[in-house]
Design a protein that fits this description.
The structure is a homodimer.
Chain A lengths: L1 H8 L30 H14 L7 H14 L3 E5 L2 H13 L5 E5 L6 H7 L3 E5 L10 H7 L4 E7 L8 H11 L3 E4 L7 E2 L2 E2 L6 E6 L2 E6 L2 H11 L3 E2 L3 E2 L10 H11 L2 H19 L5 E3 L15 E4 L7 H10 L5 E2 L20 H6 L3 E3 L8 H16 L1 H15 L1
Parallel strand pairs in A: 2-3, 2-4, 4-5, 5-8
Antiparallel strand pairs in A: 1-9, 6-7, 8-9, 10-11, 12-13, 13-15, 14-15
Chain lengths: 404, 404
């Protein structure tokens, strides 16, 4: 409590808020990324081996070991390592969605790069609404959206829930549409006893320095390997469209040096999540999004704070005030991607659940640079905001008028 | 001479040729790649710094230093590091050639990935013939090919000559077509006193582990930086089409640790080139492609052997026999890319110079794994082929009949 009082001493009046000229709560930034590093000793040992072998790329032994270990971890026959998940997803969609331009169904409540990936693969994004609880594609809305121009469904597992995997799988089979998953948030997670990474035609996921595609489909695995290596088949003949998507040995070393530590990282994430739940309990209108049991379904990569009345400040004002204090929080998936569409002739579709959720959440500061004490200080600051909401609102309104 | 006799002792009869069941000349392969490694001490020092700073990607200090040093080395204001040259060229073409599908003019006497890059950027490859001496795009043929659907010219500097830079630059300006260069072969080379890397709207080149785009155009540099980072402008807003083309810190460390050694690598390449010229002198019908003076125009990355009558064996038979001996030589840019085109409805254009040159050259074994002694052994083997051409041809013809 002494510590808390000391911190509070820094924010005695509204003028002590950093956004209004006060000293920031944190001298250095508290980011939203994981920022966990590979195990240093293991990385340097692997790196020495790469120099000793003089083998730096082109499917070398470190890449092969990484692919073997990850395939085993995800209980899938094939894992193909790509240089990054953008390239991996472009290659995957180009292969499964085919050459004739059509639509790829995807959510709008996700990261902004995803519709670009659809466009690079030669198709048009078709945004579909999500389920309120899972934050992931609604099978009902997907069923309505499937039509003759549908080329693929690109589901995105969310940090708080996988997609409705069973329903989407049945739907994809029934309507004969390829189904793939962006499983970037699914590292270490489990669905009905089976690791995320083994569903649909393929799943693309991310492991810190590296991105990987899992698939159970031998022909698809073969196509993905060829596309990764310029489309080369045999000695040097080009068998189809390709690019350079190769992961090199030093990247694979970094990824391998992370693997053993994944459980510890997830453990620390869960602790931070618990610390946020405890510290912010009792603040009316703030709710840390819970991760339903069982615990092995989640990696606690993000902490999402839901903001609603009677919390006295808007979500965006709360974000701005926290950022001023060097807690680099963000509005979560906001604005939603369908409202950012580039074609002015085409009005955006109406996605009511997506639009509602995109106004609710703050992605809180997490990762290796955020301590339990930091979280407690953030909570004290939030209580300060709550108890000084009126004068804060007045200052914000005055500042807003000033910038116009 | 003793050494040569010992080697020759291994090839006393045609049956001693490895392709016919004999013991290979080389116990381990002699490849065509450079296979030079970054300076080990410098790489590990930089890698330690990355761990100490906990900064592994997103335009960190190592990437920034690499870009600064390369911009200075090439005397250009901007250098933008991408994860690989495929991604860099796709991004560059997407920006300069614009969104409306059209043609990109490029040579067919180059590496097979290049037309794929044009397709990923949303355009159609238009193959154009080359000059016999430079092996690079013929400005006359390019001028004929430019039409209303031309979106860009993609020149490729060759290992034995840069493009006709002045003529292409004048033509591009006159016809208002963006001109960019693939300068992957141009590392360390000079044109009229100016380093390759500063011509056209931008040049993409490769430095071992990393690929870079140079440009003098501030707006283009800005677009390239945004596209590399998912198209993000400002905090998180997406300002246009993007992807993940970021080079990370560990790659930049590898590249920086190569920079000081580039001159030494080129020096060793020149020695190997000289060794091939000396060792193969006097073999009728074989000519090592010369690199015209001044020496600083070339990096001697490849050694190209031109095969023509009265050499008694075909180019492809010579390649097969050398490969049997573990000298992993290759037909150079053969078949040319326009004859590999994927659209059966569209007959390939006639590119007589390209087609002729594609039948002539062998890309010889070079790089750090090939010693001067290796080159002398290859020359002795070539003399053996020359003096035993008749029975070799008979064996090859018999083998050919056997496989039918």
């Amino acid at each position: 409590m002494t510590r808390t009082s000391q911190t509070l001493a820094g924010k005695e009046t509204v003028g002590d808020i950093a956004a209004f000229g006060g000293k920031p709560l944190f001298a250095t930034v508290r980011p939203i990324g994981q920022l966990s590093l590979p195990d240093e000793r293991q990385f340097f040992a692997l790196a020495r081996g790469i120099f000793d072998r003089r083998r730096i790329t082109n499917n070398g032994p470190v890449v092969q070991e990484l692919e073997r270990r990850l395939a085993a971890m995800h209980r899938v026959p094939y894992c193909i390592a790509y240089a990054n998940a953008t390239i991996a997803l472009i290659a995957l969609l180009k292969i499964v969605a085919g050459p004739v331009q059509g639509e790829v169904i995807l959510p709008a409540f996700t990261y902004p790069g995803l519709p670009h990936i659809v466009r690079w693969a030669g198709h048009v994004p078709r945004f579909c609404d999500i389920e309120r609880e899972s934050h992931a594609l609604s099978p009902i809305r997907v069923a309505e959206a499937i039509g003759p121009s549908t080329r693929a469904i690109l589901g995105v597992h969310q940090v708080n829930s996988p997609c409705a995997i069973d329903e989407l799988t049945a739907l994809a089979r029934e309507r004969a549409v390829p189904l793939v998953f962006d499983a970037v948030h699914g590292v270490g997670c489990v669905h009905r006893g089976q690791p995320i990474g083994g569903f649909g035609m393929a799943e693309v996921f991310s492991l810190h320095a590296t991105k990987l595609i899992n698939t159970s489909d031998e022909r698809l695995a073969d196509s993905l390997r060829k596309m990764r290596n310029f489309g080369i088949v045999g000695e040097s003949e080009i068998g189809g469209l390709g690019l350079n998507g190769k992961l090199n040995e030093i990247h694979a070393a970094a990824a391998l040096a992370c693997l053993n530590g994944v459980k510890d990282v997830i453990g620390r994430n869960a602790e931070r999540h618990q610390a946020y739940c405890a510290a912010l309990a009792g603040l009316d209108g703030l709710r840390v999004l819970p991760y339903p049991a069982p615990a092995e379904n989640w990696n606690y990569e993000f902490v999402l704070l839901e903001v609603s009345p009677p919390w006295p400040l808007s979500r965006d004002a709360t974000v701005a005030l926290l950022r001023g204090e060097n807690a680099l929080v963000r509005p979560y998936y906001s604005p939603p991607l369908h409202l950012e569409a580039t074609d002015p002739a085409q009005p955006p579709p109406s996605l009511p659940v997506t639009e509602d959720l995109s106004r609710r959440f703050i992605q809180m500061a997490v990762g290796e640079l955020v301590s339990t004490e930091d979280i407690q200080e953030i909570a004290v600051f939030m209580r300060f905001l709550q108890s000084h909401a009126r004068p804060i609102e007045a200052r914000l309104a005055a500042a807003e008028r000033g910038t116009r």
